[in-house]
Structures are given as C-alpha cells and as structure tokens.
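Task 17 of the worksheet. Students: predict the tertiary structure of the chain below and write it out as structure tokens. Keep your answer in the requested format; marks are given for formatting as well as content.
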Amino acid sequence: MSGSPTFVVVGAGLAGAKAAEALRAEGFDGRVVLFGAEPHRPYERPPLSKEYLQGSAERETVFVHPEGWYADHEVDLRVDTAVTGIDRGAHEILTRTGHRERYDKLLLTTGATPRRLAVAGSDLAGLHYLRSLDDSDRLRSAFRPGARVVVIGAGWIGLETAAAARTAGAEVTVLEHARLPLLPVLGPRMAAVFADLHTAHGVDLRCGATISEIRASAGASAVLLADGTRLDADVVVVGVGVTPNVELAQSCGLNVDNGVLVDRHLSTSDADILAAGDVANAYHPLLCRQLRIEHWATALHQPAVAARTMLGRDATYDRLPYFFTDQYDLGMEYTGYAHPDVTDEVVVRGDVEAREFIAFWLSGGRVLAGMNVNTWDVAEDIGRLVRSQADVDPARLADPAVPLAEL
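Model answer:
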C-alpha cells in the first residue's frame, strides 16, 4: 500500500475498533493504524460492570473482534502505545516512545477517565475504580460472600457494581451525596425505583451522605462520613463519574468544551481531525444542541459516521441517545434525552410497583425520552415518538391498550 493515505485512530476501545471496521467496510484500502494505551486489544466496557463482573460471561466475550481480525483486515493495531502529542502542521502524532506517525485523517476515540474522589485518603492504593478490564478483574476477585463492600456514588456504574457485589453475596453499602440515586438523570419519581430496587435486595443505601476521609490499615479500609459515621470495608469502589480525555485535543489547539467539540459530521475545528465516542461533544441536529453521551451505543454507532466523513462522504450522526442497564432482575432501556429541569410531566404506562412499565418524559406535550423497564421490543416505538416531536395525549400514552405505534 505504498503511497496510500494513512488514517490514524487514537484510542483502541469500542469506538476505535468500530472505526477501523467501518473504514474497511466502506472500501478504504489505505493504511489504518489504531493506537491503544492499554495492553489489551479493543474490548467493550458494559460487561465490565454487568455480566463479566458478575461471573456469568467469559473473558473472551468482552473483546470487540477476535484476535486475528486486525491482521486479517490489515489494521495495524498497536497496543500498549500511548499517544502523547499531535503536530497538526506536520500531520503527525507522537507516541510516548518518541515515534512519529503521519496521518492524512486522524480520529480521536480517547474515551474518558474515572473522576477521582477529592477527600483525604483518596490516593490510597486500596481504592477501586471501574473503567478497564483489569479493574473488573480485580473487583471480580474481591466480590465474595461476606465481603464488606462500600460503593461511593450511586450512578449507573455504582449501582451496577453494587448489584454485582450483592449477587456475589457481599455485604454492600452505597453512599450517595444526592437525596436519591440517579436523580440528575431520572428525576425523583424514577430515581426512587432504583433506590427501592437496591434496598429490596439488601443494599444499605445511604443518600445525603458526605465522605470526609478514607483510611486504610492491614488490607482493610474505613470510610468516614461527615456526620461521624465510620464504615469498615474490605473493598471500596469509587464511581463518581468520568472526565473526557481531551488532553491531546487541547494540547494541539482544537476546540474543547466538556469533550472535544465536533459538528454533526463528527469533525473538529481541524478538518482533518475527528472525534467519536465518550470524548466527543457532538452537535445533534434533531435536538439542536451539543451532547456528549457516555454510553455504549454512541461508541458503537458514531464511528461509522466518522469513517464516512474521513472518506469525504456526506454523513450525519443523528441517532437518539440510548443506554441500558441490568441490575438484579431489572432490565432497562432509555431512548431520547430529557433533562429533569426541562421536563414538565412524567407519564407512566404499566406497573411501577412490579417494575414492569414504560416511563415517558414530556415537555409541552411532546415526548422527550422514554424508559422501558422489564418491557421489551418497544425502544423503536419510543424513538419514533421522540423523533416525531408530535403533541401526544397523556391519557392515551399511559393506556397499555393503545399501541405505541398508533400515538
């Protein structure tokens, strides 16, 4: 392929791997070089807090492609190779070892890093964060019957980790600063569903908690709260959100604001550099706003648009935000985007107490988002309602006898 264009992808997670796949599927026959800082080939992250962490899935199932796929498709995969700089003028990236690689197009899929807890003792070696396959391996070994597990943060990662620990037979305490878990995402009514779910499964859920210090001695830890409470723990897991890995983009002068700013085509302020996945703050043409979505579906689907844009084709990313969770016997899908501050009504179809329902977030009579809980094959209908931006009758929306397709 001498003389062929070189497309470089920095970040060998799901988004990076799917970008390489999409480039080949679109017929690109130039060089594809995929850099990853971790020692593993690309893998998916949802299993790390779900089935893999629970021990119900084998390690091989988490990888995006079989081991030989990259060589078979002439993708130059370079694991354990951190990229430390971008020279936009020379169209080159610089690795930690000093190697320079020229690019014609560059895609950043650098993901995000867990936010560190800002309290005394937060730098102790015994704290666990869950982002990588190695992190999940360590927690999988630590979750055992009778182990005292304290989870700090009741977001999606914190709650899924708590569910895995309880399923393994551990004694679990979850600490959350807000008055309910997931409150900024779901609002009080739906947040209560997840609070009740965990307490029903024996989790000691403590909301309104403030951490003052973490201590460690003889292999065990203690979490101290502002009210003087001391919680002894064998395992402390911190899940207080993530920060997008924008350092590369920022250092070379790309526009950055809560991620790398990209347009609907996933192009940055440099026409030869794009971004996708957790790191990309992308303009959504339907929702008419910039959105950075830290979920699997975005990393799965954005790379195909990025690949087409890199090839000079007209492509727009306009899929609705989507995410899912599995906790104990609860499975959930969420489609759309509804910040509680702009929602004026939540309509429920089904039985909340039985945890078999669909919740719809409305504003001005229009459906902004829907969440189906233990109710399946409705995500497409929910997406259609959101996309239609049509006024809906809340009574018909709540009536299970009215098919969603008729609304």
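Marker's comment: Residues 141 and 265 are 42 Å apart (CA to CA). The mean pLDDT is 96.
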